[in-house]
Write a structure and sequence with these properties.
transmembrane; V-ATPase proteolipid subunit C-like domain-containing protein; transmembrane helix; elongated; membrane; about 100 residues
């Protein structure tokens, strides 16, 4: 949440929170983002419960495809998810670095 708020603040204002006078503005920005995230918690829970059957079917399908146990299929899916998230995080980091370099120039 903090890194997302940092990126959005930098993108919106053109300044990083570490620049002079930006920290109080960032804290207000972050407080709003934090409040919105926690207000959406019931919707996220409902969405997770609605997606549970799809997740179970996915684990079962991977277990059948790999001819392995459900535990092994779950581990494969978790590793794939971690790899995907790391790729997304790397892309965001590269974009933020490029944005910070263009702001600094």
């Amino acid at each position: 949440m903090l890194s997302s708020a940092w990126l959005l603040f930098t993108r919106t204002t053109g300044f990083t929170p570490l620049q002079a006078g930006q920290w109080p503005k960032f804290l207000v920005f972050y407080a709003g983002a934090y409040a919105m995230t926690h207000a959406a918690r019931p919707l996220k829970l409902a969405g997770g419960l609605a997606c549970a059957p799809v997740g179970t079917a996915l684990v079962d399908g991977v277990a059948r495809a790999l001819r392995s146990s459900k535990v092994a299929a779950l581990v494969v899916l978790l590793v794939a998810e971690a790899a995907g998230l790391l790729c997304c995080l790397g892309a965001v980091a590269l974009y933020a670095n490029r944005l910070a370099l263009s702001v600094a120039v």
